[in-house]
Design goal:
Shape: elongated
Structural class: mainly alpha
Radius of gyration: 19 Å
Distance between the termini: 64 Å
Number of helices: 4
Strand order of the largest sheet: 1-2
Number of strands: 2
Helix content: 40-55%
Strand content: 5-15%
Length: 111
């Protein structure tokens, strides 16, 4: 009863984990692949928007280095991301850099 009265007096709400703070899920344990899907979806959305523009290789590289790696470093500075999420982000960046799309339809000229 005292707990409920304190929460009402202060004006806070009781929450449950996982919750989001500044766009990042806060949990009591290590982040799972599902909890990191928000990051992958944001990166995919950016690449999908950029794919509609006719950008040079240097332009695509600049967008990847500034925007995508900025989001990635923000998340990675707080949590250890699962390897499958890192592989997916790498795949999206590589496909966009070499093909200009989020999904690669042919083999790149350089390995």
């Amino acid at each position: 009863m005292l707990h409920y009265q304190c929460i009402q007096t202060i004006g806070f709400q009781e929450g449950y984990l996982p919750m989001k703070y500044l766009g990042i899920p806060i949990t009591a344990s290590r982040l799972s692949k599902m909890e990191c899907s928000v990051l992958v979806e944001k990166i995919t959305a950016w690449v999908h928007i950029w794919a509609t523009r006719n950008l040079s290789f240097a332009g695509r590289a600049m967008l990847i280095n500034t925007v995508i790696f900025g989001m990635f470093s923000y998340w990675a500075s707080i949590f250890l991301l699962p390897q499958s999420v890192l592989d997916k982000i790498t795949s999206i960046c590589r496909n966009y850099l070499w093909g200009g799309k989020e999904n690669m339809t042919r083999i790149p000229h350089i390995s």
